[in-house]
Structures are given as C-alpha cells and as structure tokens.
What does this fold into?
Amino acid sequence: MAYKNLEDCLLDLEKHDHLVRIKEEVDPYLEMAAIHLRVYEAKGPAILFENVKKSPLSTYAGAPFRAASNIFGTLERSKFIFRDTFQLVQQLIALKGNPMEAIKHPFKNMSAGLAALKALPLKNPASKPVLYQEINIADLPLIHHWPMDGGAFVTLPQVYTEDIDKPGIMQANLGMYRIQLTGNDYALNKEIGLHYQLHRGIGIHQSKANKKGMPLKVSCFVGGPPSHSLAAVMPLPEGISEMTFAGVLGGRRFRYAYQDGFAISTDADFVITGEVYPNENKPEGPFGDHLGYYSLQHPFPLMRVHKVFAKKNAIWPFTVVGRPPQEDTSFGELIHELTGAAIPQEIPGVKEVHAVDAAGVHPLLLAIGSERYTPYMPTKQPAELLTIANHILGTGQLSLAKFLFITADDTNQLRTTPIQTYFEYLFERIDYSRDIHFHTNTTIDTLDYSGTSINSGSKVVFAAYGDKKRELCRDVQAAFKNLQAFENPQLAMPGVIALQTKPFTDYASAHKEMYVLNELLANADLNKVAQIIICDNSSFVAEKLNNYLWVSYTRCNPSHDIYGISSFIENKHWGCKGPVVIDARIKPHHAPPVEKVPAIEKRVDRLFDKGGSLYGVLK
It folds into this structure.
C-alpha cells in the first residue's frame, strides 16, 4: 500500500502483528540498541519506543520524540511492506535490461508502465508536514549504539545533495551515509559529522563544489515512507535519481520543496539542513560498524547545521549495525531480490554475484561466470573468467571487494548459495599454481582495517574451472596433529583446516612462523586440503560456517597475509603447490570488534520479564 509517512507503515505493521510497542522509559545510551539487537536476533517484530528518555541537553518543551527500529528486520516483513509494488519494480528493472519485452508484450507490461508514472517527483505539494516545527539537534533521540562509539549517530539517514553544475532533483543523489550528531569536537546544535566512503555519489557533488570554492548544501532526511530509506541504499547507476525509485517502490510520488535554498522531503519525519565547506573536516567516529568491528576516528567532512525540522508527532527510525547478520542484511536480501538479473545484464558472461553478508559484504564476493573462449581446447582452465573478474572489480561498489572467488559450471546447476556447496565445488577444481591473481596497492572498503591504511590494501582473485582435481578431506588429517607451535587443528568445512597459534606481533615474525609451518608440511600429502586458516581460536572458526567467513575474510590483507605450502614466484606470478594459507589472526593495526555490555544486557532484561512490554516476544 502507498504509505504517506512512517507512522502509516508502523500502524499497518501493528495491524498485522508485525510490531510491538515499548511503553517503559528507555535510555538512548546503549539500552535502545541492546533491546533492538535482542529482538532482531530472535527474528522478532518491529519496535515502537514510545517513551525515550530525553537528553538533559534538550530544551524542547514537548514530549520526547518516539523512535522505531527493526522495521526491516526480516526479508518477509520487508516484502510485506512493499507487497503492492514489489513485483512491478522487479518488472521495471527487467524491462530496463530487455526493453524489447515491452514492445513484444505491451498489455502484459502495461501495469509496469503505469507504475513508472509514480517515478516523477512532486514539487511544492500543498501539505508540508515536516515544516511543522523547528528544533535543535539536542532535541532528537540521541542514540548511542555501542560503548566505544564517539557519540550519537543517525543510522537510517537519507542524505540528499545536488550537482552544483546541474541543479535539480533529477540529477540529485540520495545516499545512506552515517551522521554523527554529538561527541568529539562537534559544537552541539551547530556542527555534525558526515561520513561517506569510496564510490559514493555525494563525493562527486562535493568535489564539484570544492573546485568552485563553494559550500555543498546538504539535507539529511530521517523517516518518511519506508521506500525512501530503501531508495537511499539502492545501488542505482550514476545519473538515475533515487527519488524516482522511491516513488515507484512506494507507490507514491516523492514530495519535496525548497526552504532557504535547501531541498526538503516534505513527507519525512525530520530534516537536518546544513552546508559542507571545502577542506573543512573534523574527527568523526569511532562507530561500531557492519563488518563487526569499530570504524576508528578519522577526519571527515564537517556539516554546519542550518536548521532542523520535525513534523508533528514525528518518529525517529534507527537501526543497529555490527557483526552480521543485522537488520541491514535484510536490506541486502531485498535489494538482491529486486534487482535480480541486473548484474548479469551489466557484466557480460556473469551468471551470479553474491556479496557475502557474513563476511561484511565487501570483503568477500562469490561469482559464477561463463567459460566460452576456447571450447576447442582439450584442457579446461580459466580464461573468460579472468576477463569477467576484472570487469567485476571495475564495477561500482563491487570494486571494493577484497576476495573474489569465481568459477564456471557447464551444467548450469551451481549457485552461489549454499555457500559451503559453492566453496566445495571451487576448492575441488582450483589449481593453486595457476589460479591465484593478486591486485596489490589498491583501494578497499573504508571500513576494512585489514589493509595498510584507510581505503588502502589489496585484492585477490581465485578463478577455478575444469575437471575435479581432488577429493576434499572431511576430517583432520594426521599431518596437522602435533605440529610444533600450531595447535588445536579443526575442520572448518570440507577441505579447510583451522590452526591456532600464538598472537600476531609483526610481519617479520609472521613470515618466520609461516616458514616453520611450510617446513613442517612441505612433504606431507595435502592434496585433499584446499585452505589452512591460521587464527587465534580454531574452535571458534570451526564452530559454524559464519565464523569461518567472518574471521578468514575480514582479518586478512591478501598481499600480506596469504601464504602457501611450497609457494613460488615464476615470471612475477605467485602460486603454490600445496594448500593456500591465510593468516587470519587479529593484527595490532586492526580495529577492535564490537561487543555487548553485560551490565546493559542485564538492565534491559526488565522489558523481557513478565509484566514487561516485550514479555513473550522472544520465542
């Protein structure tokens, strides 16, 4: 249904038993985040916090603003929210890749064409609810998510900017870039921090404004119809307005106006307007982020606050990010279902690409491609796959990937999920003397601290194709037992052995340790082993697949932390005759992992106990 605002959506969820209200007073400092995490982990309902403790810094005379979370907590609930438009959006995306379909079957696709009319934003609507009142930053629910966070953050912002050379909504960018509201050196109510990463549209807008020596006008929308939040995270091609997508998905045109020269989403619950001046940065962070670690404090653009608006009875939506899966996992699943075949249409030869959520999305991509270059050759080996791999690593946010595994299946039966099945297929066929390709001294995700510095690190492609080369071991082989300095061998998955050793100190020592491991294993029969994971706790890595994915691919810089048994360099190509070794120990330069606070967990128990608003919610 076409929700006019966020509260419409929440009432609809409540009507269908998808929402619970919390009537007790809750503290935005750590408590609200802890409640959200516990309900999310139980696959529980959306939450409406009706009594948020007001900040002592607030001068707002009215009742504290309500807050909502876990709105998109499950894929099923997300699809329920967009139940009336979901298939139409899928159809429109498919038509974009195959426009002839509309010509061949005009009546079949008529509904998609009518839905596209909702894509046109509506300027200056008669009603502008968000301009009801002007407030201060301190009057907002200042939610502090993790104990080491630098302050309160906006975690579901819709950050709007326009191209200074091509002003107007159709060339604008709407992105979800976190906003730090308090803490550090920010002047309360006057300054906030704007954090954005590589390959984001706002960066192009700021660069253009900087060259002209002019401030970039920024509007941060919070709340409004749920389609607005999803539009802000959609990986749309540059030049396509997120506001048009929001209109189609929401079944309601995006309504906007201008106030003091700033764009205003009139259906939003809150709008923060301000300006970013050239070369004006302040330390932003730390922030517990979606890789499961804190992103540390770094200089990011300072936004000088102009005004803050709120609608009557506004509701502040938020989420909590941390080690996946989290609520943003559902965002990713929803986007994948919506876009369907969009990536195969964009990259010739690609059948499937899967950004692995359990590894933090950007660190690990699994892909299935085609191998059609040399069908006349008797030896099957990667050729077209390497071309496809380079295309993937040169495409938008996929270029931030750190590990890319790619293979081809002539029977067309392989999929990237289940993940273990995919890995087994690839590990059975990979030739480590030939199929490993490094990209060194390049860009990686801003939030990934495994590299050499912020935004900098390396990538590696594992490209496998051909006949099965090995059977994978399904238990720990004798060669791994009683190894000097390497203990507690565990089978993480077929063909993958986890070994723990002493903590990492420096790379000189690590090279010596890996030399010792090579000497111990060089003469062993390891054909059934594809990977050896060196870690701090092998029992944890082997406990479940998600632990293996998280530890192995978030704690490794490929150029620095990949070794191999009987490795060699030949004509500048690195390879190994035995299994690959990944040093996935925590390094001194890594960011600390996010962890729950036991005292806070105990404090929120009251809500889940008998008589509390959440009693019986966790089933």
User: Anything to note?
Assistant: Residues 97-112 have pLDDT under 50 and may be disordered. The first strand starts at residue 19 and ends at 22. Residues 507-521 form the longest helix (15 residues). The radius of gyration is 25 Å.
